[in-house]
Write a structure and sequence with these properties.
Two copies of one chain form a homodimer.
Chain A lengths: L2 H6 L2 E5 L4 H13 L4 E5 L3 H7 L6 H5 L2 E3 L2 H4 L5 E5 L11 E3 L3 H10 L4 E5 L8 H5 L3 E4 L11 H18 L16 H17 L8 H14 L4 H19 L1
Helix pairs in contact in A: 2-3, 2-8, 6-8, 9-10, 9-11
Chain lengths: ~250, ~250
Amino acid sequence: MPLSEQLALIEIVLVSPRNPLNIGAAARAMANFGFERLTVVAPYEPHWREAKSAVGAEGLLQNAKRAERVEDAVAACTFVIGTGTLERRRPEQRGVRLPELAPIIEQELARGGRVALVFGPEKRGLTRVDFSLCHLLVEIPTDARQPSMNLGQAVAVCLYELSSRLLAAGPAPLPEADAEKRADSAQLELLAGAIEETMAAANYSPAEMSAANRHDVRVLLRRLALGERDARRILGLFRRVLWRLRH
Amino acid sequence: MPLSEQLALIEIVLVSPRNPLNIGAAARAMANFGFERLTVVAPYEPHWREAKSAVGAEGLLQNAKRAERVEDAVAACTFVIGTGTLERRRPEQRGVRLPELAPIIEQELARGGRVALVFGPEKRGLTRVDFSLCHLLVEIPTDARQPSMNLGQAVAVCLYELSSRLLAAGPAPLPEADAEKRADSAQLELLAGAIEETMAAANYSPAEMSAANRHDVRVLLRRLALGERDARRILGLFRRVLWRLRH
């Protein structure tokens, strides 16, 4: 598949945008830079209807999906990129600045992965829980005196960067022989769930720690960059352990 | 002067924006990427007042200037860059795509030049006359199916590109020994005026050709990349010729 077609398949995810104009602005920027797949998480219903009537992006918005949770929006993706400030990530999470992002996505596409780029709501941005579903955090380098960007402009800047750098670089190199397809987000969530249940069944820690454990497991699984087969194998192990614990 | 301070001195010029939100959006993007000088040409007065009350860019908008004509907005600039589609330029005008712009501006700043980046009105963009005042045309590479960008997003994309590529590249190289300071736009307009008067005084061509001649002279003078001294010398020559023609 030519790189321009692969690029079009990158999922753009907007989490609960508050300003209805921003859904239209994001869709407009997507059309400008050749992106096609938009998912809006938990939109406010009147804004969602209003956005669908925006000028210049009709087809794209008609095909846009809605999802109730970020997990659902990125379920089929093998590499999830959250936008925000690097300060907010945890030390074990990987982060880059936008000008460094294109080669990373290129590698991911070359190994047959599916990529999502996730934008948080206007004021507060992505939450800590949203970030725990991301393999990578990306920051747009901005002036320290006015770091906070308008959502529609942030989307435009990110998509410009990706389309101009990826398409200028030419076709991606062939994947290495050992480049296994990564586990997608749905598979990682399944695995995280099994690990969590195992923790509970084994009385690993008190009940009030379960939210913190879930978070740590999610972050860990993304950092490990698990392949599809590895993830299946580990899931099998935990299910077996869980069965033994319960019987 | 450090590059970040030079960058801040690039003039951002909006020509007759129609949507009042776009003045605020441009100012917001300028603040995000460390730019400080905004001039709005022939704004619609109520929009101008409305924009001055936008959130997050107060100082910048309070210092924003208004000009009646593009010529006035760029008078002190030695290198004027118009944004638009490369198809619209004349063959003798220089044009580049946005990812190629940073090194060109870097050279200009290194030789002590002053740079303006000019954006046209939302629907029609810069006119042919506006372009005749530009040394260079720059195009944001967009998808052929939806090439027309939102103004606020176009400004954000251009300023992101310049700030991220210029600041990442480190300090500009020292100017070459023979790098003369360029003539600024006011000087070029003065020279164009003298040449035009000379044409008229010499009956160079019929009166109905004068608009076309003015355009050609403007384009020619920008393409020549005249130094300050050269421009003064040529102006002196034409004034002398003009005096002789008239006496």
